[in-house]
Structures are given as structure tokens and as C-alpha cells.
Amino acid sequence: MPSVDIYSLNGLPAPYWFIQLFKVLGFILHSIPMHLWLAGLPIAIILLLIGGVNGQMFARRLLKQMPVIMALGINLGIVPLLFVQTAYYKVFYPSTILMAWHWLGILALVLPAYYLLYLTSALVDAGRKWLPALSGCGASLLLVAAGLIFASAWTLMASPESWTELWRAKSIAGAATGLGSNWADPVVYLRFVSICGLALLTVTFWLLFDSHFLFVEKRGGAGKARPDFSDFMENPRLPKSRKKELRRLRDAGKLSEEEELEALEYGYDEETEEGDAYQHWALRFASVLVWFGVCISLGSLWFYYYKVLDGPESVTGVHEASMTTAPAAPIDPTTGEPERIVPVWIPPITFAGGALFALTVILGNFGKIQGKFLVVLVGLCEAVTLTFFAITRQIIQNEQIKNYLDIRAIPVQMQLSPLLVFLLVFLFGAALIYWMIYAMVKTVKR
Ligand code: HEM
């Protein structure tokens, strides 16, 4: 396929580094909530049905948080999409037009999934078990299908050389029918599996964050979360007989301040033990979950980076990549060997991040690292893993389309006003996200 004449394009409205930075940042931000609904939702449903007291507690909390997580994920997905449409439109539109019905199908999948998540959250709130499990299951299936379409679209976008054949097969009188797809490409599933593995790591982090930060705030603020009432007569946990006795003392003016305070807080001290049990369970469960996450994500990424993309010739003499629509390493014309797409030093940082993640959780389970410090360390490992995964992914995307469209070489025609509007909207969005998380924490406290 002839490459795009970059001088015929409008030019990049912002410097190359700015576009890459916000595209990668946007993808990382999109990934966190997306991981929670991809892996967290099925895990929560299983725990809701067969989990113990603590497992059910986590399940109910996560399911109640889910509508806000979904809203966050969708909004944050817009950020990288904006930059895809700005700089990568010469590859984005042809590929999504070729698979238009699948692409449009995302709406038909995401909208009902969103409603089902609201329903699940409300049913959980009403103390139900089987019905939210059923509606959550429906939402989860729809979201997995949407995720596969996304994986398929980003894979097709990075393989312009497969478009002509797809267009020939799925066009009428030269017009694309939009019925194309690349489901036959195993890379789609490999990418999706690595996203699912990373999603398990994010759920592990969220489990620890929820149990050590959000839940602790709930009980740590025993004096803060409880006082929907300021009179001990309204304390539902204080026995009636004790209430009567205390009221008699108060009416007689003989009730001391300590007694009144004790009566006010009666029954809420137990939450400390409850909270500790929940945190211990969270650590134990996290140390199981993390192994699945590390093995699935790092295993599939290693296979993708080193066997599919940079793979040597297979025994049949055919380059591994020819099994896929996306040819992996382009052939170096001087040596005739496949060029290395992924810089050697980047994947090991992702792997190190994942391994450290697992190590930190295990040390936490053995009590070597504790409390919020443990969660902060796990959060840092998660950040390193996701950041380097996103950077590697971006490098691969740029390299795969380079022969057709060299983004880096497109001249910059700076457009300051849209740039400023973007930055302002981004700041506004960040404030909105802060408010949404605040609202979610408040809901969970209730
Ligand atoms: C509806 C609003 C959404 C928007 C605007 C959106 C946008 C995006 C964008 C732009 C990317 C690629 C970023 C890049 O190439 O750097 C991406 C990746 C991805 N998104 Fe979303 N997304 C949305 C919802 C979802 C949903 C509901 C799922 C379901 C699980 C999902 C799953 C994924 C996956 C799995 C990837 C990575 C695919 C791969 O690299 O193979 N997204 N999304």
C-alpha cells in the first residue's frame, strides 16, 4: 500500500511530544477504570455468590462503586480517542470504516451495560444477591464483547497492509460495507488477554486501596461516619433498656459527658475489628489474585513482544508475524532481517514493575510491610507497570504504521486556541473526576 504523503495533510495542531504524552496519559487513565469493570466485575459477582462475609463485603462495595467507575472510564477514554482522531486519522478512519458495524456495535453494547450496572448497584443497595449477580453478569458479558471490539479495532488500525484485501472482500461497487473484521487475527486475543492480566493487577490494587483507604475512612471516622444522629436515643445499636436508663439519668441531670459519648458511639467500636478482619482478608485475597495477574499479563506480553513482534523465523521458515494481519517487525532492506520493533530496555521495566507488584503484596501478606504504606508501594508498582506498558504499546503502534504514515515526520502547524481549550477542559475534567470520586466515596460510606 503506498504511503501517505504527509505534506498533503493539515499538519499536526500540536507538537509531536504533546500528542504522544496526552495520548499515553489518557490511555493509562482510561485503563484503570476499564480494568476494574473488565476483571473486577466478574470477580465481584463470583464473590457475591460464593464469597464469605468479607468477600461479599468487597463484592457489594465494588458493585456499588461500579456506575461511577464506568462513567470515569468512558470519559477518560475520550482523551486518547481525541488524539487518535487528531494525529492518526489517516489510519483510524479507514480501519473503523472497514469494520463499521462492529465499531458502531460498541454503542449497542456499552449503553445497556451501563444501565445494567446502575441496576446492579441499586439491587446490591437493596440487599439482594441473585438478581444483582444476574444483571452484573449481563453487564460483564456486554463489556467483554465491547473490549474485544476495541482490541480488534486498534489491531486493525495498526495494519494498513491488510486493508486492501479486507475492502475487496467486503465492498459493493467499491463502497465498503463495513462488515469487515479481523477476528481471524490471533493478535487481537493475545492483546486482550494481556489487558485482562493487567486488569487483575489493577483489581488487586483496588482491593487493597478500598480496604485500607476507603473502608478505613468509613470506620476511622467512627465519630464522623456515624453521626447522622447526635442523640444516643437514635443509636440503633444501643439496647432499648440502656436507652431508657440513660434517658432517665439525663432527665434527672445526672448523666456525665463520658457516659453520653459512650452511648453515642456504642456498637460502632466493633467496626474496628470488622475492618481489621476485612483488611486481613483483602491482603490474603490480593496475594492470590496477584499471581494470576502477573502470570497472565507478563506471560502474554512476553509472548507478544518477543515471539510475535520481534520473533525470529519459525521452523517453517515463515516469519511468525505472517500468521497475523499485523506484520510484526518490518524487514530491514539492508540485512533482510526483521527490524526490532520494541526497544530492548522498555519491556523489562514493565516486567520488573509487575514482579515488584507481586513481591510487595506477598511481603504485605507476611506482615513485613503494612497499612497504607503497603498500598502506596503497590500503587507505585501499578503505576510503573501501566506506564511502561502504555509507552511500549505506543512505540509499537507508531512503528507498525510508520511505513504507511510516519506521524513523527508530519509537519507541525501549531493551533494555539484549540490547544488552550483542550488544556482548560482537561483541568475541568480533572476537577470533575475529583468530584466523582468524592461522590463515590460518600456513596460507599453510606
Ligand atoms: C465508550 C467509551 C470508550 C472510549 C472513548 C474508549 C477509547 C479507547 C481508546 C482511544 C483506546 C486506545 C488508546 C490508544 O490507542 O492509545 C482504548 C483502548 C482500549 N479500550 Fe477503550 N474506550 C471506551 C470504552 C471501553 C469499553 C466499554 C471497554 C470494554 C472493556 C474498553 C476496552 C478497551 C481495551 C481492551 C483497549 C485496549 C485494546 C488494545 O490495545 O488491544 N474501552 N479505548
What does this protein look like?
The chain is mostly helical. It has one domain. 72% of the residues lie in helices and 1% in strands. The chain contains 14 helices and 2 strands; from the N terminus they run H-H-H-H-H-H-E-E-H-H-H-H-H-H-H-H. The chain has helices at 16-50, 53-87, 89-98, 100-125, 130-157, 163-169, 186-220, 222-225, 240-251, 257-265, 270-309, 346-365, 371-401, 416-445; strands spanning 171-172, 175-176. The chain has a two-stranded antiparallel ribbon. A hairpin with a 2-residue loop joins strand 1 (171-172) and strand 2. Helix 2 (53-87) runs antiparallel to helix 4 (100-125), helix 4 runs antiparallel to helix 5 and helix 12 (346-365) runs antiparallel to helix 13. The chain is elongated, with a radius of gyration of 26 Å. Mean pLDDT is 88; it is low at 217-224 and 313-323. Protoporphyrin IX containing FE is lined by residues 23, 27, 30, 34, 38, 74, 77-78, 80-81, 84, 110, 143, 146-147, 150-151, 154, 191, 195.
Provide tags for this entry:
446 residues, mainly alpha, two-stranded antiparallel sheet, 14 helices, binds protoporphyrin IX containing FE
Strand fraction: under 5%
**Helix-strand pattern:** HHHHHHEEHHHHHHHH
Given helix and strand content, the structural type is mainly alpha
Question: What global shape is seen?
Answer: elongated
Low-confidence stretches: 217-224, 313-323
Strand arrangement across the biggest beta sheet: 1-2
Q: Give the N-terminus to C-terminus distance in angstroms.
A: 58 Å
Q: Describe the main β-sheet briefly.
A: 2 strands, antiparallel
Q: What gyration radius follows from the Cα positions, in whole Å?
A: 26 Å
Mean pLDDT across every amino acid position: 88
Number of strands: 2
Q: State the helical fraction.
A: over 70%
Q: Total domains, how many?
A: 1
Bound molecules: protoporphyrin IX containing FE
Number of helices: 14
